[in-house]
Amino acid sequence: MKKAYQRFRLIAKWEGYSYLALLGIAMPLKYAADLPMAVTIIGSIHGFLFVAMGILALDVRQEAKHSFLWVLTAFIASIVPFGTFYWDKKWEKEQVKMSQIKG
């Protein structure tokens, strides 16, 4: 259980960083400096992390017996700027609680 939450939280943080880089660096470079390649590169990295986070959220849901609402919350957190950082505190508490229950 601990490993699934650890992987999920790590990827969620990187997904959050990549989203901020996409919005705060790549998009301005695309439109202000006419450098669309920045969005292509950072967007691809962000897309990979977004999908990985979704898969890992489903893995945590299955192992922790969370409801689908938990996965939906993780999805919403991933599309709101700073959302994954905000929710990470709750996910950390859940991870600790689940690790105490499981062993």
Please write out the topology.
Layout: H1 2-32, H2 37-64, H3 68-79, H4 83-102
Helix pairs in contact: 1-2, 1-4, 2-3, 3-4
How would you summarize this macromolecular structure in one to three sentences?
The protein is mainly α.
**Rough shape?**
elongated
Radius of gyration: 15 Å
Share in helix:
over 70%
Give the helix/strand class.
mainly alpha
* C-alpha end-to-end distance: 9 Å
Q: How many DSSP-defined strands?
A: 0
Q: Please outline the major beta sheet.
A: none
Number of helices: 4
SSE order: HHHH
Could you characterize what this model shows?
The protein is mainly alpha-helical and 103 residues long. It has one domain (2-102). Helix content is 88%, strand content 0%. The chain has 4 helices and no strands. Helix 1 runs antiparallel to helix 2, helix 2 packs antiparallel against helix 3 and helix 3 (68-79) packs antiparallel against helix 4 (83-102).
Essential attributes:
single chain; 103 residues; mainly alpha; elongated
